Amino acid sequence: MTVVDFTAAFDVSASEFHVTFPTGYLLKDLGRQITVYDPTIVGSPHIALFRQVMQVSGPLGNEGVSTKIAYICTWEDGSGAYQVAAVARTG
Fold this sequence. Notes:
Helix content: under 10%
Order of helices and strands: HEEE
């Protein structure tokens, strides 16, 4: 998705892009990703990768299922356009 399409499709100030997860909580990768690219860049146009995640270990009585679902930036090309979350993915 181009930068223009990404900006038009998603309000990055919306709640799905501004969820605060407590330090030390596990996030489940929900398998959806958005790759943002800039078509004006020749060669390697990718500038960011967003993954959809859900907080694991929700409120008691919910069997670990949380309503906190969000997109987090897991990689960025170094331009500083997006804030990258400090996460690790395990098998």
